[in-house]
Amino acid sequence: MSRTEAASLLVLLGATGDLSQRMLLPSLYSLEAEGLLPPQLRILGSARSPLDREGFLRLVTESIGERIPENERDDGVLHALLARTEYLGASVDEAPTMAALASRIAQLRRGEVLCHLSTSPRFYGAACAALAEHGAVGPGMRVMLEKPIGHDLASATEINDAVAAVFDEDSIYRVDHYLGKEGVQNLIALRFGNALFEPLWSARHIEQVQITVAETVGVEGRGDYYDGSGALRDMLQNHLLQLLCLVAMEPPARFDPSAVRNEKIKVLRSLRPIDRGNAAADSVIGQYTAGASGGVAVPGYVEELGRPSRTETFVALRAHVDNWRWSGVPFYLRTGKRLPLRSTEIFIQFRKVPYSIFGGAAGADMQHNGLLITLQPEERIGLTLMSKTPGLDRQGLRLSKVALDLDFHQEFNHARRRISYERLYLDAIEGNGTLFVRRDETEAAWQWVDALAAGWRDAGMLPRPYPAGTWGPAAAVSLIDRSRHAWRE
Ligand code: BG6
Questions:
Q1: What are the pLDDT digits (tens) for 325-374?
Q2: Which of 132, 159, 174 is the last residue of a domain?
Q3: Of 421, 482, 407, nearest to 173 (Cα)?
Q4: Considering 66, 249, 351, 398, which has the largest number of Cβ atoms within 10 A of its Cβ?
Q5: CA distances from 210 to 38, 240, 256, 264, 441 (A)
Q6: Does 474 lie in the same domain as 383?
Q7: pLDDT at position 364, please?
Q8: How many angstroms is it from 247 CA to the middle of ligand 1?
Q9: What is the torsional sign of CA 118, 122, 124, 130?
Q10: Is 205 a catalytic residue?
Q11: Domain end residue (candidates: 174, 201, 219)
């Protein structure tokens, strides 16, 4: 287990960027408010902008003002955060600025250091090398990396190699922000904190699994990045495959970095390839055209982008985890932009009872039990059961489907909805890598995704159009209908 001392210094590269302003600085504020930042922690922001400390503190204040609701804002907390924060402009390709950064790191550190690279991944290798060259890296320094780690296996390997030339794997914290979500951790709690589900959690009792991450937004000014990526690389390679791992993995011996990640990698390595042989049968890609989102007319993807494109904004597929537990169970994965709802959910459909004792009409009503784990926009768990329909009937008992529904927000007295980086920062500062992605996981996921992308290319598959505000191309429905299943909507 790679738990180490809490960090004494957080170095945030890319400190003036969008992610920093929307998520990272507000998360640090929330940790400060809850007394979870180690007292000795100093924060050193850095980016290309030649800001002075006052300028950066103003930016921190603004970002907190925008993101933290007014009733949660407290001047004392803000001052405490600002008091531990400073800024130094630096650019990876300007050696003197990196030397200055390295020497400031040396002055500020009182023990462990966490260096968060929230820059474009193409700078990761150079940033690590520059910090090492100027003497800032040594034992007790760890590095946190944002996605995407590459756009295929080859580029991911290159980035991982470059970072590994400076840091040991145990000191590398690769972010998948889904793992920082309360709902995702709750999935782990549900599976491994309850005796109820484990005996049922296999092909013997589960007929199909659906994982949907639906977004209503389009590409929101990120067209240049997104167009080189698409739904497969932007969402499926990381967030959906991580969810699949958590659903399908064997119980780890402990909730610690090695045990959990050892189980996840086994799932990734058991994924049956979808390649040129079965890409057309087992996957569907789409691209949104003009339509409506939330009742408002919105342009299509190519209009937003301003040029023609064959990038997919929707992907649906039928995956299989080829091992004893899951043999024969389809895992349907689906994600897309400009879908009708924002929703992240995992749906487990159990097999029907083997035989109906009720006969006649009631027997015909017999349906599957289903477990629905909703991660977004709310966290809920729902279980559908068959129950007797109230009343009398000459034919005997009539059954109908009822739902048990648990809303975590209500259950836990409307606990504040957290930004996933609160958990991720807390863990990275404390040196706990359980909720971060290991190199072998990223690379196994890329290997699987590369085969799929090559399969699309070889099969000449192009994204099918779907109007914004719909559930993707009709072919996504036929994809699973062929196995006599239907998407949960
Ligand atoms: C990011 C993707 O990783 O996840 C975005 O790059 C996507 O395209 C986002 O919108 C979704 O995250 P969340 O937390 O809003 O579900």
A1: 999 999 999 999 999 999 999 999 999 998 888 876 666 678 899 999 99
A2: 174
A3: 421
A4: 249
A5: 40, 10, 27, 18, 21
A6: yes
A7: 65
A8: 20
A9: negative
A10: no
A11: 174
Mutate to test the pocket of ligand 1, among 118, 146, 182, 215 (most ligand atoms within 8 A of CB): 215
Atom from ligand 1 closest to the CA of residue 219: 8
Instruction: Output the CA 95–ligand 1 centroid distance in Å.
Output: 34
Residue 258 lies in a domain: no
What CA–CA distance (Å, rounded) separates 124 from 143? Answer: 10
pLDDT at 361 (0 to 100): 65
Residue 320 lies in a domain: yes
Residue type (1 letter), 481: D
State which ligand 1 atom lies nearest to the alpha carbon of 215. Answer: 10
Closest CA to 81 of 32, 25, 14, 20: 32
Is residue 256 one of the residues assigned to a domain? no
* DSSP per-residue codes, 152-185: SHHHHHHHHHHHHTTS-GGGEEE--GGGGSHHHH
Across residues 50-59, what is the average pLDDT? 97
Cβ of residue 275 lying under 6 Å from some atom of ligand 1: no
Tell me, what's the pLDDT at 416?
A: 83
Please state, in angstroms and rounded to a whole number, the distance separating the CA atoms of residues 94 and 79. Answer: 32
pLDDT of residue 395: 74
State the residue for tokens 């064997």.
Answer: 250
CA–CA dist 185, 420 (Å, integer)? 11
What is the rounded distance in angstroms from the CA atom of residue 174 to the CA atom of residue 167? 12
Q: Which domain holds residue 105?
A: 7-174
Compute the C-alpha angle 128/431/116, nearest 5°: 35
DSSP state of 321: B
